[in-house]
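re the bet — no i am not wrong, look at it urself. input seq straight from the record:
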Amino acid sequence: MGTKTTDEATTETGTGATGAATEEKAAARTAEAEAAQETETAAEQAATGTPAEAGTETAGTAAAEDDESDESDASDESDDDLLDDLLDGGELPAAEPPAGVGQGAAAVVSAVLGLVSLTGGWIGSVAAARETLVGQLQTSSSASVAKQIKEIYGDAWHTTALWAGLFALTALITGVAVLARPAFGTPGRTQAPWIRSVAWAGVVLGVVGLLLAVLKYTDALLALPSTSS
């Protein structure tokens, strides 16, 4: 019963060989398919970029979007807080004015007034002309020469000196006020150098103009001519 015939042994041997050949063919087909798949994958990566680079770009874009979202949320929260303060009866924060604008303007005014004091100015010229006219009307032709000179020219000269002195005094006071302003202002806020320079120029011109005005008014400078023979 356990003995096989020659035909049966031959049949089993053929069947085993056929099965082995079929497995080898299947394995070869699987290897070819894997190789083709790897080739296609490599071609796609070469055409569109590596997956690592794509992942990095995607991560960077996502991070940028997250930052923009955080900034937008912070801005929205700030606006909401400001709106809540207004609804609760609060006030908007006052805008701080630029520092030194008024002081700079005052310094320029001081320098200009000091310069005007040296020339007499338009007002001084008009006042002197008016004083000359008044002297002519009030002085008779029979008056002495000394009186005519005094009434017509001397009073006009003194009027010019008086107006020049007023301009000089105003320039001096304005310049000193600008230089002293930081001592009474906000602590820690320094004055611009150009403001101090212009203010000092106004002070110097004011002092010089005031000195000249006093000398002219007292006849110490450019006194009236003597009429004595």
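see?? The CA atoms of residues 107 and 153 lie 35 Å apart. told u. also The chain is about 80% helix and 0% strand. so pay up
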